[in-house]
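Protein record

Derive tokens from sequence
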Amino acid sequence: MMACALAVVQPAAAPAPCGRRNLSCHLPRLPSPRLPGRIRGRSIVAKVAQDGSESPGSSIVRYVKNSFNTAEDIFALAGIGFATVAALWASVNLIEIIDKLPVLPLFFELIGILVVWVFIYNNLLFKPKRQEFLKSIKTTVSQILGQ
């Protein structure tokens, strides 16, 4: 878990002197609206501190690093990587072939529109169904995150 600390810093009271290195002195100063009781400008400084707890991504990174210690795991990871690349290549080629057929893209587009309308009708159109749908989303997210 990461902790974040924010600090608000007031802008400097005196403007920086114009010198050769300061390029902002050559730009025209635009008028800014002044609101009574408000500060014209603020700078925000954010600092991140590491807590003692581990983030979920660090366990995956540690697993992959430990997997490269043994020869069997290296071959397994290489096989999974190759299978992923091959599946991606095959799916892209399949989609390109289907897209070249004259009737199927229109048919799939109509099916997609029909599925979207059925989803909207079943889950989003009426308030009780919408509340039930949002409740199921919240329970699913809490189950996935382990809360």
